Amino acid sequence: MVGIQNPAAPRRATSPDPPRAGSLERTTMTPTPLIWITEQIHPDAVEMLRARAEIILPGEDATPHHDRITGIVVRAAPIDADLIARLPALRVVGKHGVGTDNIDQPALSARDIALHTAAGANAESVADLALTLALMLARAPDIASDALKRGTPRPNVDMTGYELSELPCGILGMGVIGRAVARRLAGFGAQVSGYDPMLPDAEWPDSVARRASVDAVLEDTRMLFLHLPLTPDTRHMLDLTRLRQMPQGSFLVNCARGGIVDEAALAQALNEGHLAGAATDVFEREPPAPDLPLLHAPRIIGLTHLGAQTHAALRRTGTLIATKVLTELGV
């Protein structure tokens, strides 16, 4: 997209003739909101914002306009207290996704700045990826494919895998994504248990046995799915002690947040052979350093936060958060 040509004049919404209410021609009556889009979002969401506000697009320099920015749409960029302090007109932050660990919420609350998320919009895509990773761990098609490409169609490892119905599955976090994973597992005939102290009994899936604690899930789970938010309570929840609570030869799938798992502990559990494999779409530092020990542990599948990266999820997430931000700004 074309960048801002004049730093003193951010990208303006186009308006028909006669001008609509809230357009730049009517700023003496109703100031037009200025929304900063920090990272790429779906084009339909950009057009929704452009139609009713001025916008600063990803890659454009927002610094000259800090005094006028009234809204932010953010994905993973840090929105910290220092930045918030430089935005005196800020009224709303819209998180393109669910996790808000990149946003200083106390700093927003101190100025009564609204924070909205797109909870649930990417659930189906993240759940699809979680099941994909679970099947890769259970059947190892990537190992067979790599061997075939090297000219050794029969890898020098035992390729006997598992059906998901053979592996007791556990889900930590039964929010929208966790429940979407549970629906998919039911289709595979899997035995599933879960833990989430916040979900009311009325919303708990019939196909999932409710456990009273994290430890109760771990002790009989061979395929563990993580779908928790990253909070002080969940940071490094899966340490070496807890990983060793899982049965020998278990698998772990993390499509939540990197900090929930102690990466050094996970590498050790894989190197020791206690875990048979792990797949993670998230890391404590993204992207991870190439020399991160976890990346060199046996049977680790690492991705680059692709869970919500589908056409449908990006459109749903983008248009939902655009709607929430515009509504908060009253346009």
List keywords for this structure.
331 residues; Rossmann fold; 2 domains
Description of the molecule:
There is one protein chain. The protein has 331 residues and is α/β, with parallel strands linked by helices. The chain folds into 2 domains: 24-121 and 313-329, Rossmann fold, CATH 3.40.50; 123-302, NAD(P)-binding Rossmann-like Domain (Rossmann fold, 3-Layer(aba) Sandwich). 29% of the residues lie in helices and 15% in strands. It is built from 10 helices and 12 strands. Strand 4 (92-95), helix 3 and strand 5 (114-117) form a beta-alpha-beta unit. Helix 1 packs parallel to helix 10 and helix 4 (123-139) packs across helix 6 (176-187). The model is unreliable at 1-28 (pLDDT under 50). Residues 132-307 form the D-isomer specific 2-hydroxyacid dehydrogenase NAD-binding domain. Belongs to the D-isomer specific 2-hydroxyacid dehydrogenase family.
